[in-house]
Protein: Peroxidase
Amino acid sequence: MKANLLLLVSMVVLGVLGVCQGGSLRKRYYRRACPHAEEIVQKVTWSHVSSNPVLPAKFIRMHFHDCFVRGCDGSVLLNSTKNSTAEKDAVPNRSLAGFDVIDDIKSQLEKTCPGVVSCADIVALAARDAVSFQFKKPMWEVLTGRRDGRVSLASEVPANIPAPVFNFSSLNQSFASKGLTVHDLVVLSGAHTIGVGHCNFFSNRLYNFTGKGDADPSLNPTYAAFLRTKCRNLTDTTAVEMDPKSSRNFDSHYFVILNQNKGLFQSDAALLTNKGARRIALELRKSADFFTEFGQSMKRMGAIGVLTGKAGEIRKKCSLVNA
Ligand code: HEM
Ligand SMILES: *[C@@H]1O[C@H](CO)[C@@H](O)[C@H](O)[C@H]1NC(C)=O
Ligand SMILES: *[C@@H]1O[C@H](CO)[C@@H](O)[C@H](O)[C@H]1NC(C)=O
Ligand SMILES: *[C@@H]1O[C@H](CO)[C@@H](O)[C@H](O)[C@H]1NC(C)=O
Ligand SMILES: *[C@@H]1O[C@H](CO)[C@@H](O)[C@H](O)[C@H]1NC(C)=O
Ligand SMILES: *[C@@H]1O[C@H](CO)[C@@H](O)[C@H](O)[C@H]1NC(C)=O
Ligand SMILES: *[C@@H]1O[C@H](CO)[C@@H](O)[C@H](O)[C@H]1NC(C)=O
Ligand SMILES: *[C@@H]1O[C@H](CO)[C@@H](O)[C@H](O)[C@H]1NC(C)=O
Structure:
């Protein structure tokens, strides 16, 4: 009897702990303090995306970079100061963009409910809404309640953002260090179904893979020849669609081309070098599976290292810590 009670109590305690751990973010966190917050983010995001179709790629990558460095705390948005060089000025900062649009969303929110909605939440919501514009409905659920950090350091970028030359075990290690699984790694790599990559991040695969003037044998030779027409030499920095002909369409086509050995980066190709990952990559060619899984993995990515409760602050301007 006593043992059963103890079991019950410990289950309740563990349950509550579990909720606090994964559940410090909530659905519609701003329901009371700013009832129209999520509508405003969607409206402003959609108005920008309608005239700027590359924005979905910019925002989803911005959210990824935010979450992988110091957790999803809006640190990617901060400007450099006299004292410190911020994440966005890391070399290479790999062409992050869309900061002006985040500022616009923030200023609209500040008009309606000043000092309430965090910049970290804006990034998470805007990434979802930008991608969802194409479908005219939210494609995944975004929990909210993140607060903003006060620190952004370029020096923390290299150790936290995986590089396009990473092999499978380095990718797995990078994601595991953020509490993400191999499954999340494969699913989230599907974000490369939209957007572009610059030649300098993969031209070694076209011209000098092992230092003998050779191409990467794991890259489809026909595709490599096509890419050489875009990237003329090892220093060319032309931007190339990652999912050709479908690079503004959020769909499962990345996994179709990946399985034809047409992944653009070594890190894309690396997903086929592990048996479990390859199995997942094959599965995700089905768009219904990709959409479902992507939403769930984004939820896990969006919860990395978040500041909640009394931690951090709600910035007044997204590019600046509060005075
Ligand atoms: C798995 C490890 C990853 C590596 C090594 C990687 C690397 C890269 C690189 C090198 C670029 C090209 C940047 C440029 O040339 O401007 C890129 C672009 C992009 N990445 Fe990733 N990435 C990874 C995972 C992710 C994840 C998890 C997401 C989001 C969930 C993401 C979203 C994007 C998007 C949308 C672009 C296109 C950006 C644009 O068009 O400006 N990536 N990635
Ligand atoms: C942050 O930097 C951007 C680009 O240099 C600039 O446009 C913006 O005004 C800066 N933000 C603030 C609050 O000064
Ligand atoms: C810059 O550094 C000085 C000296 O360490 C410090 O007093 C000041 O608060 C810092 N300013 C900012 C904006 O971090
Ligand atoms: C990237 O860094 C360079 C040099 O540090 C800087 O001039 C550029 O403005 C940065 N790009 C963005 C989008 O912040
Ligand atoms: C993956 O890359 C890391 C870092 O470069 C290296 O130490 C490791 O041996 C590589 N693993 C495989 C299986 O090639
Ligand atoms: C990925 O990394 C985690 C953490 O280091 C490890 O437990 C797991 O075995 C790795 N998975 C694969 C498939 O290598
Ligand atoms: C290819 O790589 C080798 C070894 O790193 C180097 O010696 C050679 O100069 C490179 N070729 C070109 C065209 O850059
Ligand atoms: C590489 O190609 C670019 C684009 O075609 C060209 O502008 C540049 O001069 C080339 N560089 C070299 C070293 O050939």
Remarks:
- The beta strands are 196-198, 239-241.
- Confidence is low (pLDDT under 50) at residues 5-23.
